[in-house]
């Protein structure tokens, strides 16, 4: 029996399914959770989506209001199957791991090449842009037609995991999206909500960051910073500093962009992005941080001026 048959049998023989994603869920995690929830509803199988802290940016997703949130008050005995989506290893379940461990049967559907096969049945296609893309295959194999409701959640997962079709896109991704558009999803609204809509506080923070932006080493390094006072004055959360490092990165002469976020007196959380050739993870590692080749971070306990000079010293070694 193929893995798709196994998954179908497991699902059809379940009475109550718990659907889980990963910690700090992104659009693919929450999108796949709700797409599956909607699909199971269509075939009259009872399911519960549990996300301790969902991001309200996704509140337009059909079924968002049915998500069980907050502290775990669920009873494992109420579920005969757990389906984990977009989660490569069991620790990424975070606070839902304990509940997962107590449920007898499990399925994992994922697209991370590093998936640890922690579930009874795993369907991992790492070529897919997103877990949502893999769900399309699962639904097709089960004969579940994708309607507008399901498509809205699936499309959300695909566009978030491809950065708005910037990367990880295959011909199959586009074929699937064509099928999703046929259901009449409001793709313009979804895109705007996820990539364009911002708050006045964040907009003002962007202005401050751009005002402070310095170009160093012949314009190859961009440096800017945020302070605790900024967050307080503008009434915004630290999470809203996400993405600010890209303004420096997008300048045509820049290879590396640095954003230093003040955490405490003389304590900074550093985000770094490289464009083409600098291995920024090497730089982060020097300061006991880490990350990816072109996107890394670390924490530094120094005054701002010294943070800047020590990072530039290290990055300089790789500049062409
Ligand atoms: Mn994903």
What does this structure look like?
The protein is of the alpha/beta class. The protein is about 40% helix and about 20% strand. Strands 6-7-8-9-11-10 form a six-stranded mixed sheet. Helix 4 runs antiparallel to helix 5 (about 150-160), helix 5 (about 150-160) packs antiparallel against helix 6 (about 170-180) and helix 5 (about 150-160) runs parallel beside helix 7 (about 185-195). The protein is elongated and about 60 Å long. The structure holds manganese (II) ion.
What attributes does this structure have?
alpha/beta, six-stranded mixed beta sheet, 11 strands, 12 helices, five-stranded parallel beta sheet, binds manganese (II) ion, 320 residues
SS class: alpha/beta
- Low-pLDDT segments: none
Strand content: 15-25%
Any idea what the radius of gyration is? 22 Å
Number of helices in the DSSP assignment: 12
Q: Hetero groups bound?
A: manganese (II) ion
Quote the distance from N terminus to C terminus: 55 Å
Give average pLDDT, whole number.
96
H/E series: HEHEEHEEHHHHHEEHHEEHEEH
What level of helicity do the residues show?
A: 25-40%
The description of the largest β-sheet is: 6 strands, mixed
Overall geometric form: elongated
């Amino acid at each position: 029996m193929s893995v798709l048959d196994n998954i179908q049998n497991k699902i059809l023989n379940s009475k109550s399914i718990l659907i889980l994603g990963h910690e700090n869920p992104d659009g693919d995690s929450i999108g796949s959770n709700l797409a599956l929830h909607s699909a199971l509803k269509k075939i009259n199988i009872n399911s519960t989506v549990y996300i301790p802290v969902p991001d309200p940016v996704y509140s337009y997703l059909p079924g968002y209001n049915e998500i069980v949130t907050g502290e775990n008050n669920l009873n494992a005995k109420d579920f005969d199957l757990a389906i984990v989506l977009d989660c490569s290893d069991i620790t990424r379940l975070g606070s839902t791991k304990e509940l997962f461990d107590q449920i007898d049967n499990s399925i994992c559907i994922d697209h991370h090449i590093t998936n640890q096969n922690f579930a009874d049945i795993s369907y991992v296609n790492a070529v897919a842009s997103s877990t949502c893309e893999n769900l399309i295959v699962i639904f097709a194999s089960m004969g579940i037609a994708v309607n507008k409701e399901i498509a809205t959640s699936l499309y959300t997962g695909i566009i978030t995991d491809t950065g708005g079709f910037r990367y990880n896109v295959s011909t199959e991704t586009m074929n699937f999206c064509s099928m999703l558009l046929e259901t009449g999803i409001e793709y313009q609204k979804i895109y705007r909500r996820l990539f364009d809509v911002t708050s006045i506080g964040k907009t003002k923070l962007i202005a401050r960051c751009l005002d402070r932006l310095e170009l160093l080493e012949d314009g190859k390094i961009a440096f800017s910073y945020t302070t605790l006072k900024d967050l307080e004055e503008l009434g915004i959360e630290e999470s809203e500093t996400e993405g600010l490092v890209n303004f420096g990165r997008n300048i045509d002469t820049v290879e590396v962009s640095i954003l230093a976020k003040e955490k405490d007196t003389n304590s900074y959380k550093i985000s770094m992005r490289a464009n083409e050739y600098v291995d920024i993870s090497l730089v982060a590692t020097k300061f006991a941080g880490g990350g990816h080749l072109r996107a890394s971070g670390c924490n530094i306990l120094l005054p701002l001026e010294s943070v800047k000079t020590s990072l530039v010293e290290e990055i300089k070694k790789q500049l062409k």
